[in-house]
Amino acid sequence: MAELTLSINFTQPIIHRELIRILSPAYQLMPGDTLNLTIALSNSMVHSDSLLIVASAINHLRSNGIEVLITIHGQSTYASRINFYSLIGVPFQENYIRRNNAGRFIELKSFDRDTLYPLQDELNMILYQNGGINKEVLQLLFYCLGEIMDNIIVHSGLDGGWVSAQYYPNRQEIRLTICDNGNGIHHSLTTHPESKYKQASEAEALDLCIQRGVTNGEGLGFGLFATSQFILKNDGDLLIYSGNHYLLATHGNYEIHEGDFYKGTLVSLRINTDVPVDYKDIMPAHHTLPDDYDFFIDKYFGEDNELW
User: How many helices (H) and strands (E) would you count in the chain?
Assistant: First the structure.
């Protein structure tokens, strides 16, 4: 049986692509193999989406019969508060009072068909309650969040995925990451019997997935198109990582690069909460997005009362 040793240092800034580079060799392990993983933490801010990438990978490996032995150096009350320790099976004594998330974040969570829509509602309610986020941003995020999470249920070949969200009011930004360890975009796009894109390469599949109307035969092929257009017009950042390639959209443009292997699909967004985007620049004519969002708000909060 093989044994692999890896180390992640969260006491220094680390981007998602670097995390994937570190974790990539673990996806080659076989049932019965062992991963010795050392994680360095501190109470300086670590992003929840970075912790999500690690927690989801650990759970994936364990579910496939790989023994994951974890050593933690240092500690992070923030990591504990968003349930990182419990998700990776490491005991942690919480010497603090767990306060409400104050509409700033959700704990790291997995979701499946049964919890998909309640979790979407929870995320949208948290963002609405802050009151400091542009309404046009909230409307498009409401749509894109549902589409991305639904894509995982439909296309990953698994029962569900993982999500993290954090709002930074001082920076006027939201960081949102949704991921799974399933089939990946290339497999989904090229192997479905009704797909028109069976000859696409992995890099081409990433490019195709953000084009309007591209689908493997399931769905309308609009969710990632709308998401990418939203981020480009919002001047935010978008990372879509699947297999050995990733798409990076930033500063109004996007590029596709070859990278280290990631098992499944990762969609990570950084959204500027003060940069409005007109839904009519993205959505089909006569789309009911504003009405759909207002209906959602009325459902949970009663009349909007012109808070906006």
Answer: 10, 8
